[in-house]
Amino acid sequence: MKSLAIVMRQNGGPEVLKLEEIEVAAPGEGEVQIRHVAMGVNYIDTYIRSGLYPVPGGFPYIAGKEGAGTVIAVGRGVSEFREGDRVAYPSGDGGYCEVRNIPARALVKVPDTIALDVAGSMMLKGMTAEYLLRRTFKVGPETVLLFHAAAGGVGLIAGQWAKALGATVIGTAGSEEKIALAKAHGYDHVINYRSDDFVARVKEITGGKGVDVVYDSVGKDTFPHSLDCLKPRGMWVSFGQSSGPLPPFNLALLMQKGSLFATRPTLFSYIATRAELDESANSLFKVVQSGEVVINVNQRYRLADAAQAHADLENRKTSGTTILIP
């Protein structure tokens, strides 16, 4: 079967993302073949494209890790999925394409009440918010947290989810439009990091106490200032680096700033087993179905325009979630 796909043959800027026609074989043992309805665009895709993260399996590489669609064929040994099932995945290299094969162990079924374009936009980001708020640091009514990039894909989901858990939610954003968007999605306070000293504002908001946890996907531009926002024995969760990688630092810095905890988690460690994958996905589906979390698909691009989607994401021109449409 023929399929259009976005293929990378080298690292570089968005221009290395090329639309090509590929041949898709019949699904192998343990595999499912799906026809995409939507594929999510995520910062990790740009990290792999640029060379910041290694290219899984080498070149040529089909970009993209997240998508949703319909099963059109199953391979030998697959009993949990059948033709016509609505499915999605948060982690599967090769996502920017019309048709693909993927291991059945990577897929989950999507409830009928959730549109497939929404599912394709939310799996990686929503399940990231799930593990950050429920497992990396267990957020509850007593929690005061700071979430950088509050109007981003993970940020808008996390703000709503954290508010549903009863937390006091502080965020940062880079424009008045994004500040308003974040405030409409669970954030009690949103700081303009372009015009305000976010450390000083966090201290002001918390009466000098600081926050229990900082969720930081920005990286270079927010370090080490994020540490200065924390209470003694608070936790710094560095889960991305949209502004560039963190510099090496002496671990004694955590002691000096209040016996802080620090972690560099990734979703893939939190969904390593079938049980963990299902639990995380079902938690996400539940909060979306309940209306506690609304998924904003704010940008839609044709598959052929994947390079523009990457450029807009890296230039902070996007908010909420971004998808490619085959």
UniProtKB/TrEMBL annotation:
It holds the Pfam family ADH_zinc_N. Keywords: NADP, Oxidoreductase. Signal peptide: none annotated. Residues 12-324 form the Enoyl reductase (ER) domain. The keyword Iron does not apply. The keyword Nucleotide-binding does not apply. Gene3D superfamilies: Medium-chain alcohol dehydrogenases, catalytic domain (3.90.180.10), NAD(P)-binding Rossmann-like Domain (3.40.50.720). It comes from the Bacteria. SUPFAM superfamilies: GroES-like, NAD(P)-binding Rossmann-fold domains. PANTHER family: QUINONE OXIDOREDUCTASE PIG3-RELATED (PTHR48106), QUINONE OXIDOREDUCTASE-RELATED (PTHR48106:SF13). This is Quinone oxidoreductase. It comes from Rhizobium alvei.
